Amino acid sequence: QRHADLSRIEAGREELDIGAFSPADLVEQVVANYAARARAKGLDVYAVTEVGMPMAVQGDAIRILQILNNLVSNAVKFTEAGRVVLRASATDDGPGRVRLRFQVADTGPGIRESHRARLFEPYFRAPAGQDNDVAGTGLGLTICRRLSDLMGCTLAVVSEEGLGTSISFCLSLAADDADGAAPVTLQPRPVYVDGAVPEVVDNVRGWLNACGAIALPYRKPADDAEPAGAVLVQTWPPSTPEPRWTHQRVRVLAPGAHQDAFMTNAVGGVASAFNPVSICRAVQMAQDGVERGALGADGGAQRSLGLRVLVVEDNVINQLILREQLEHLGCVATLASNGDEALRLWRGQPFDLVLTDLNMPVVNGYELTRALRDGGHAGPIIGLTSSSAAEIAQRGVAAGMNQVLCKPLPFMVLAQTLHGVAKDMT
């Protein structure tokens, strides 16, 4: 496959596919892809998306994803101890534009100075036992270099034997919100952030402060020192011992991590470990609960909407976040990982509403919707997608969906939508 990719690029047959994407979501996806493999080796793997990152930019997300996947895969494969970090930041690059910088850093063996100049040559591999960072087919980094050239950027390598390697690249892209507006508005209340990695704790605190909260590092309080209305955010990997906390808390989920004990007795929300926007939205839900927000004055009645919801989503973290949000709204959520599983569940029990991702293995959201309609399902079907393209929503509606919403789905958008569904059923 890599030989074909390289041949296509060198023949000039590779063209950029420009569209809207979320840098934070892209970073989350890359690190989530390799989190289980890293944890199995005893490595810490995490992402740091700097405050001010636009929620959406215009670029070739697939090519950027290909580069980052290759770099993170190499870092995890050849790092035997320590950590692998994917960092992303944005700076102003003129009216309506931002310069994105991505960096993959590891604590692996490093690359000899004599080999760095040849690092991106086709089929170059260091002698056996040397520079494990570049061992393999010898084409992965070459393809990364060709793709970066295609997008008008340069891969920069900083490495030192015995200490590790950092590979970074910058892109100038159009941004829908180049000023980096806060994704949510949080109440100016204390939010304590706990975790084992100071860089992650500081990054999450920065996002929470930018959204209006008073974010503070967690320190073990006296028995009576928990401020009323405060929220505790526990990042991953968590610190030990487990903090004693009786108020609202937000826990994060990391793919491949054994988190059963960590998630026990969770009070509050859940979020993705690798996406600070997801964490901010979970804190908003923990702060506001269901009593406030877009559901009107009789919020007490609306806390128990009583809807039976079939959630079809192949991402386990997204499943758990949606279930958490639905349970806050008094709904009963049943989870399916693909359309085929969803159809089996639907045939066995009634559902008031179907929430389905569009792109899934086995049976995707479009195929599922057509099958449900053909089978007689008359209730609402709502599609979920990370794309903001109008044609995606149009395709969903044409398949039989009532509407298509963009992920990550803010709690208040979900609440408003489900409140409307419940109202239509009365």
Automatic annotation (TrEMBL):
Record-level GO BP terms: phosphorelay signal transduction system
4-aspartylphosphate: residues bearing it: 357
Record InterPro entries: CheY-like_superfamily, HATPase_C_sf, HATPase_dom, His_kinase_dom, Sig_transdc_His_kin-like_C, Sig_transdc_resp-reg_receiver
Record-annotated Histidine kinase domain positions: 1-175
EC number: 2.7.13.3
Function: Member of the two-component regulatory system BvgS/BvgA. Phosphorylates BvgA via a four-step phosphorelay in response to environmental signals.
Listed name of the protein: Virulence sensor protein BvgS
PROSITE patterns: HIS_KIN, RESPONSE_REGULATORY
Record's keyword annotation contains Signal: yes
Keywords assigned: Phosphoprotein, Signal, Two-component regulatory system, Virulence
One Pfam family in the UniProt entry: Response_reg
GO MF terms, alphabetically ordered: protein histidine kinase activity
Catalytic activity: ATP + protein L-histidine = ADP + protein N-phospho-L-histidine
Residue span, Response regulatory domain: 308-422
CDD domains: HATPase_EvgS-ArcB-TorS-like, REC_hyHK_CKI1_RcsC-like
Organism from which the protein derives: Achromobacter ruhlandii
